[in-house]
Amino acid sequence: xxxxxxxxxxxxxxxxxxxxxxxxxxxxxxxxxxxxxxxxxxxxxxxxxxxxxxxxxxxxxxxxxxxxxxxxxxxxxxxxxxxxxxxxxxxxxxxxxxxxxxxxxxxxxxxxxxxx
Amino acid sequence: xxxxxxxxxxxxxxxxxxxxxxxxxxxxxxxxxxxxxxxxxxxxxxxxxxxxxxxxxxxxxxxxxxxxxxxxxxxxxxxxxxxxxxxxxxxxxxxxxxxxxxxxxxxxxxxxxx
Lengths: 116, 114
Fold this sequence. Notes:
The complex is a heterodimer. By secondary structure, chain A is an all-beta fold. Chain A is about 0% helix and about 50% strand. Chain A has no helices and eleven strands. Chain A has strands at about 5, 10-15, 20-25, 30-40, 45-50, 55-60, 65-75, 75-80, 90-95, 105, 110-115. In chain A, the strands form two sheets. In chain A, strands 2, 4, 5, 6, 9, 10 and 11 form a seven-stranded mixed beta sheet that branches. In chain A, strands 1-3-8-7 form a four-stranded antiparallel beta sheet, with no helix packed on it. In chain A, strand 4 and strand 5 (about 45-50) form a beta hairpin. Chain B is built from no helices and eleven strands. In chain B, the strands form two sheets. In chain B, strands 2, 4, 5, 9, 10 and 11 form a six-stranded mixed beta sheet that branches. Chain B has a five-stranded antiparallel beta sheet with strand order 1-3-8-7-6, with no helix packed on it. In chain B, a hairpin with a 6-residue loop joins strand 4 (about 30-40) and strand 5. The radius of gyration of chain B is 14 Å and the shape is globular.
């Protein structure tokens, strides 16, 4: 199957700082990538759709100015959590699917963010 | 938007027994229904999926059934093994402008006792 990577796998930061998470499709191009957030013992919730060369689309209730998304190439999307606070601590996972492969999405390994 | 309900939230079985997890969805436009297994701290792993033009799909010990009329789909695991213990999520996806976006159920913690 297709491979999606994320970096970093784990990050600890102080409250008020910004954190950037990268999502890469390693062996395919992705015009669209998706960012999910998963709190402990909860399900995955879609945060936003990252569109190559255009603005991201955010789900209801997700602050676009807090979660900045950039999809500058067909293999890389970045999520920046700005002015992070302890309530932003979560597991962030991206997904993408190769063009032409009907439906299946491939997930990155996730990034564990802890804000102190 | 789409809403996916999953039951039960926890399921405990003895090794060798069968396990069934059920999901319902709200949007009749959804046409792709994957099931994922997630271990603690790991990414979701696709274990089986079904598209809306199919009623049932089987892969060794795992099967999924879909009832489009009732808008529900189920995961069946037979001959369960301790290594099947994990959190299982169902999901639904629509086509068109929502292509690729997954709506997840709440998850089921499956525990298989040796």
